[in-house]
Amino acid sequence: MKTARLTGLVLAVTAIIAGAAAVAEPATLRVGHFPNVTHIQALIGHHFTRIGKGWFEQRLGPDVKVDWFVYNAGPSAMEAIFARSVDLTYVGPSPAINAYAKAGGREIRIVAGAANGGSALVVQANANLSTATDFKGRKVATPQLGNTQDVAARAWFARGGLRVTLTGGDVQIIPTANPDQLTLFRTNQLDGVWTVEPWVSRLETEAGAKVVLEEPNAVTTVLAASEKALTEQRELVRKFVAAHHELTDWIKANPAEAQAIVRKELSEEVRSGISADLIARAWKRIALVHEADADELKAFVENAQKAGLLRAAPDLSRLVEKP
User: Fold this and answer.
1) Across the chain, which distance is largest between two alpha carbons, in Å?
2) 21 pLDDT higher than 50
3) Which of 50, 168, 235, 304 could form a disulfide with 310 if both were Cys (CB 3.0 to 4.6 A apart)?
């Protein structure tokens, strides 16, 4: 009898200790973004976490942790969503739509807008390239196959009458990481680059590129959440989105301070110095927003179809969701 009572007591104490450990374990939101100026809110949020003054953590609660993950472009971030290794990510609309379509309207939701503009097509300074047909036989780089700028480029060339395929066609579109684009462009191995800030400005200032096409009103960045996070951590996602909107307003009201923080964080992430002038130059091309424009999202579906990256138009009625 004593042995049974002792065993029961040990089990009870063990259960209490295990329960206390479970309570003490902080909830975690895993958030992705890119080292681009068009991901302003993420860069600032990441930096505040890095220095122990978390913007999002302060608004999520004392027992919530935010882990940040950096990706080169949208398709990589979508793979992370599918693998359930991130809960939210800042991403371009094209990868989000492609992922949504691939998953049959599941797995991912756009929960907020973030930024418009900040993308452009640049060419060599001495090149006579301005219309789509001028690029026949030329080489143009984009950040990654299927990312927002890659889709925009393929659709623009296709609308201009060029035959565009995934691996060739009338114009060769070469998915290339942003840092590598700069190197290849400097050595005249590329005729043009379709990319986002700060790389547009870096190509201008460091490689003498000239801009031939800008997209000032195009949706560049949205905040997306996994369907799993919305189901299992909906209140945390809601608080994160609210903090994201609050941060957007703070950035608009404090551009000089925001630019300084973005510069510091980008320098950490790309492992090289970023000048204040470069950030200020890039900043002028970007407009921060709260909501993702539904008409613009539909336009991205049409572009993806023209680019041959999306066969059928998905039903977008469930893509945007307010937590």
Assistant:
1) 94
2) no
3) 304
The pLDDT of residue 20:
44
- Contact 191/167 with Cβ under 8 angstroms? no
Query: Could you write out the three-class secondary structure of 27-58?
Result: EEEEEEECCCHHHHHHHHHHHHHHCCCCHHHH
User: Taking Cα atoms as reference points, which of 59, 55, 292 lies closest to residue 68?
Assistant: 55
Q: Which residues pair with 173 in a beta bridge?
A: 140
- Name the amino acid, one letter, at 60: L
Tell me whether the omega of the peptide bond preceding residue 198 falls within 30 degrees of 0, making it cis.
yes
Token duo for residue 250: 């703070």
Give, for 18, the enclosing helix (H) or strand (E): helix 2-24
pLDDT of residue 24: 52
Q: Nearest Cα to 133, choosing from 160, 172, 164, 158?
A: 160
Q: How far is CA 54 from the centre of its chain?
A: 20
DSSP assignments along 217-278, one per residue: TSEEEEEEEEHHHHHHSHHHHHHHHHHHHHHHHHHHH-HHHHHHHHHHHHHHHHTS---HHH
- Sheet of strand 139-142, all strands in order from the earlier edge strand to the far edge: 172-175, 139-142, 192-196, 119-123, 210-214
The C-alpha atoms of residue 170 and residue 286 are separated, in whole angstroms, by 31
pTM (predicted TM-score): 0.85
Rounded mean pLDDT, 15-38: 73
Q: What is the DSSP letter of 208?
A: -
Residue 281: CB atoms within 10 Å: 18
Q: Tell me which residue of 61, 64, 114 sits closest to 225, measured CA to CA.
A: 114
* 310/43 Cα distance (integer angstroms): 30
Run of H or E residues at 117: strand 108-117
Q: 208's torsion region: left (phi>0), alpha (psi -120 to 50) or beta?
A: left
Would you state the structure tokens that stand for residue 115, as one six-digit string? Answer: 């930024």
